[in-house]
Design brief:
Layout (H helix, E strand, L loop, with lengths): L3 H16 L4 E8 L4 E5 L6 H22 L6 E6 L2 E7 L4 E7 L5 H21 L2
Helix pairs in contact: 1-3
Length: about 130
């Protein structure tokens, strides 16, 4: 059974994947404490584990920024041998997490991630 949040957010994630021309391979919206709200992940992905790890990474990066006093957390980017993972703050309590192919254009992915995170934050603000 889907929730109102899933019904609102899943089309946003699918549009993100489609508009990237295949560069964005998977995405999810997770809460800052690691609960999955919605996902469009590759088959075989442990979504609960992924959401927990994303929340932990985001929290650690946020603490790091506070320690060196360079402002509020916006995005975390992790480069891997076969692509990248991007975590973007989306609203008060959510994080957009996505992964890309190795051929993805970094600037385009960051721009699409920011734009989509704003939309997600707006939608979550409308749903309690």
């Amino acid at each position: 059974m889907s929730t109102k949040k899933e019904e609102l957010l899943l089309p946003v994630l699918r549009r993100l994947k489609t508009s990237s021309g295949g560069d964005i391979e998977a995405s999810a919206v997770v809460t800052r404490d690691g609960h999955i709200l919605v996902s469009d992940m590759k088959p075989g992905t442990d979504v609960e584990r992924f959401s927990s790890m994303c929340a932990s990474l985001f929290a650690l990066a946020e603490q790091s920024l506070k320690e060196i006093a360079i402002g509020d957390m916006r995005q975390v980017m992790i480069m891997g041998g076969n692509g990248m993972s991007v975590l973007t703050h989306a609203g008060l309590d959510a994080v957009l997490a996505l992964s890309t192919s190795s051929k993805a254009i970094q600037g385009r992915v960051l721009m699409e991630s920011k734009k989509t995170a704003v939309e997600i934050g707006r939608l979550l603000g409308d749903v309690q």
